[in-house]
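Take a minute with the sequence and fold tokens given here and flag any structure token that looks odd. Thanks in advance.
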Amino acid sequence: MNATELFFKLRPSILKILLQCVVLLGYISLATTIMSSLWLVLSIVFFVVLIGVWRPMYKIDQFAHMEGKTWTLHTTDKKLLQGQLHAIQSFGYVVFCHFCLENTQKMHTICVVKDQISREKWRILQQFCRVY
């Protein structure tokens, strides 16, 4: 597996959006049976604020292998970051890549869903997960 094969350009994911909607609808249906309407509205506002606070530092739209454990991460606002691959986990339709960024020494996780890359790139990413 060479470095040119380990280049991934991420598309927007429909599965991520559907999962978030299902979780939100499940929470609302559960909360309406347990809470009064005031507490329901306050808890929804709390969760929306919480989601806004815990957004990723950088929104990555593509990442590529350089050499060894070094990877280059491209953000949507055209920043170029370098990081060391710390761990990679595969869970069927989802792969989590954990990077330690060189400029901040903070961990950053990229969640790659199967519908974000082509079938060929997904197969290559799955092979890399097994090898790593």
